[in-house]
Structures are given as C-alpha cells and as structure tokens.
Amino acid sequence: MHAASAAGAKMKGRRPPSVVTEIVYGMSLGLLAGYLWKLHHWSNQRHTREFYSLLDEGRISIVNCSEL
Fold this sequence. Notes:
This protein is an all-alpha fold and 68 residues long. It has helices spanning 2-10, 19-57. The chain contains 2 helices and no strands.
C-alpha cells in the first residue's frame, strides 16, 4: 500500500501517458528504422549492380581461390 501512495505522490500534477501519443511515437520510430533498413538494402543492391556491370564490361576480373 505504501508503494502505491508513493507512486501517486510522484504523479501529482502530471498527466498520465496518452495511449495515442505512445502509438504515434512507436509508429514514427518504426517507420524511421524501416527507412534506414531500406537505405542499407538499396546501397547493397547498388554495389552488387556496379560489380556485375564492371565484370560484364571486362574492367575487373575475379580469381578462383580454390585453384591457387
């Protein structure tokens, strides 16, 4: 009982957290994290496309290490 009254005294004068605000914060952070993940994915795709285009043009070559 004492802990509940101490928590109530701490919250005096403050509003309780809003569920809608918490949902908006969560969605915003989720969208930001998803966007950063997609940026990473697009960067990897670009590097792969560059590598294969250079390989097709003959500007670079690969060495099979198992034959060395």
